[in-house]
Specification:
Elements: E1 23-27, H1 31-42, E2 47-51, H2 54-74, H3 79-87, E3 89-93, E4 101-106, H4 112-125, E5 131-134, H5 141-144, E6 154-159, E7 168-173, H6 179-191, E8 195-198, H7 207-223, H8 229-240, H9 246-253, H10 255-269, H11 278-285
Parallel strand pairs: 1-2, 1-4, 2-3, 4-5, 5-6, 7-8
Antiparallel strand pairs: 6-7
Helix pairs in contact: 1-2, 1-3, 2-3, 7-9, 7-10, 10-11
The chain binds nicotinamide-adenine-dinucleotide (NAD).
Length: 307
């Protein structure tokens, strides 16, 4: 991808609308993939949102629709722009359609094994010129790209949840990422309207390292009986002006993701700061994953409802 892909030549037989913006292929239609798809579509990109089953891909599409509806209700997006964005998103199963994209954004679960396997497949399924970006929140990009023939194509592009509302993207060049790939990824995120910060490729980068300690410390305080979850949440919100308490935030992020992140930091640094609170591990084992499973630190009676 280059900076001028906005006005790429029309290839014979291609859809002329696609020449306006090159297609974005999003792998994983969960919380993040669906939000990223909505954001890219709002910026005018045709988007393929992919998952392992039709049901999951459709669910992701519905989630992207709800995120856009929410933005319309808040007045940040017009109803016409929402409809146009939704019309630009298609769902898919499998990586076949990746060959039509100039940027691929992987938003599959936070597992090095899953991501490495996916990138091996993506390297074959996509155009050699396409940028392969990972939305990982903690795994080193160099490790994700380690087994590829061309690790120079891989870059970290870390969006925040909820994607349409959060203005930041963290850009992480891997050890072997080519400078033009870094430039293309930065230009792409800027075109989405995001502010880009750059982090060195160390576990957790800047933001996740800070967040992991915050969430883990709150979990330890609850585990030790220092205060109730409501009082700990109130402490962060009213004492530090955080928009959400740590447990509300953990439920939004997903406890499985939060735990996986702590384990990556522990593996990477072997520093006791990152020793995950056993409470998190127990809750994940019990599938109390937060909003996405209907119950985490709080109970969510209905999709989108308050705790
Ligand atoms: N949740 C957050 O707040 C947040 C924020 C920033 C970054 N991230 C990162 O984004 C990534 C996704 O997180 P999430 O919260 O959206 O997870 P999620 O569990 O909501 O979604 C992951 C999706 O990937 C799908 N998937 C699994 N294996 C796949 C495969 N082989 N091919 C295609 N799809 C596959 C799953 O079916 C699921 O729909 C993770 O790397 C996470 O660390 C998460």
């Amino acid at each position: 991808m280059s900076d001028d892909t906005d006005i790429a030549p029309i290839e014979p037989g291609s859809d002329p609308r696609e020449s306006v913006r090159q297609r974005v292929f999003v792998v994983g239609a969960g919380i993040m993939g669906s939000g990223i798809a909505a954001q890219c579509a709002l910026a005018g990109y045709p988007v393929t949102l992919e998952d392992v089953s039709e049901e999951l891909a459709r669910r992701g599409l519905a989630h992207a629709g709800r995120a856009l509806d929410h933005a319309v209700a808040k007045g940040t997006v017009g109803a016409g722009d929402r409809d146009a964005a939704l019309a630009r998103i298609e769902s898919a199963i499998g990586l076949r359609r990746a060959d039509s994209a100039e940027i691929v954004i992987e938003a599959a679960p936070e597992s090095l094994e899953i991501k490495r396997a996916l990138f091996r497949e993506l390297e074959e399924a996509s155009r050699p010129s396409a940028v392969l970006a990972s939305n990982t929140s903690s795994l080193p990009i160099t490790s994700i790209a380690q087994e590829l023939k061309d690790p120079g194509r891989v870059v970290g592009l870390h969006f925040f949840n909820p994607v349409l509302q959060m203005p930041l993207v963290e850009l992480i060049p891997g050890h072997r990422t080519r400078p033009e790939v870094v430039d293309a990824a930065r230009a792409f995120a800027t075109r989405l309207g995001k502010t880009v910060i750059t982090s060195r490729d160390t576990p957790g980068f800047v933001t996740t390292r800070a967040l992991a300690v915050l969430l883990n410390e709150a979990a330890w305080m609850l585990y030790e009986g220092v205060a109730t979850r409501e009082d700990i949440d109130a402490a962060y919100k009213l004492g530090f002006h955080h928009p959400m308490g740590p447990f509300e935030l953990a439920d939004l992020v997903g406890l499985d993701t939060a735990l996986a992140i702590l384990d990556v930091l522990w593996d990477g640094f072997r520093d006791p700061r990152y020793r995950a609170c056993p409470l998190l591990r127990t809750m994940v084992a019990a599938r109390r994953l937060g909003r996405k499973s209907g119950e985490g630190f709080y109970v969510y009676p209905a999709r989108g409802a308050a705790p």
